[in-house]
Design a protein that fits this description.
Number of strands: 4
Helix content: 40-55%
Low-confidence stretches: none
Number of domains: 2
Number of helices: 4
């Protein structure tokens, strides 16, 4: 009885096994890249939210601090060079929009206690699940990185709140505090 010739069998097995192993390696590299990009974007969003939380315009009008704080937050976000990873960071997108990029939920639009929990920054971006279209079918995953730290009241707002509380305690009615020069008010627990 004559045996079949099996020359080259190990080469074919090696090539098939090598392709499968290399595919697994590329899959894990892609997953690692997605995690790394996600962590970097989350850290950049967190740092931008911290900037938005603390920046103050030192103006008499508390509403002016939003624009300055938002622009400072965007500048902080852009320092991480996120755009080199394909994540737009050229401008601040409108709140509630599903556009990819950096968003700010401003404090001055808060109308209820529940909405106050969502003041801060968030970033929406998309990344492919795999390098190869045949592995994940070209699926694009939408990621959202949120950092809702809120917004500290600016000194003018603290002054107005404290002054109104003093006027209320003295006169028994709500009054207005229009001139900041006639008293010195500071309350660190505003």
């Amino acid at each position: 009885m004559k045996k079949n010739n099996q020359k080259g069998q190990s080469t074919i097995e090696f090539i098939l096994t090598f392709m499968f192993g290399l595919g697994i390696v590329f899959l894990f590299v892609n997953v690692a890249m997605n995690y790394s990009v996600g962590y970097l974007v989350h850290y950049a969003t967190f740092m931008a939210s911290r900037t938005y939380l603390t920046v103050e315009s030192h103006s008499v009008d508390p509403g002016q601090s939003h624009a300055i704080a938002s622009q400072s937050a965007l500048t902080t976000f852009q320092r991480f060079k996120i755009q080199s990873l394909g994540i737009p960071s050229d401008s601040i997108k409108s709140p509630g929009a599903s556009d990819d990029g950096f968003h700010i939920n401003p404090f001055h639009t808060v109308s209820s206690g529940d909405a106050a929990l969502f003041v801060g920054a968030y970033t929406v971006f998309e990344r492919p699940l795999s390098f190869f279209q045949s592995v994940a079918g070209g699926t694009i995953a939408k990621h959202v990185s949120e950092s809702y730290l809120g917004k500290e009241p600016v000194r003018t707002e603290c002054w107005q709140r404290t002054c109104q509380a003093i006027v209320l305690s003295i006169t028994g009615s709500t009054g207005t505090c229009t001139d900041q020069s006639d008293m010195t008010v500071f309350d660190n627990g505003c």
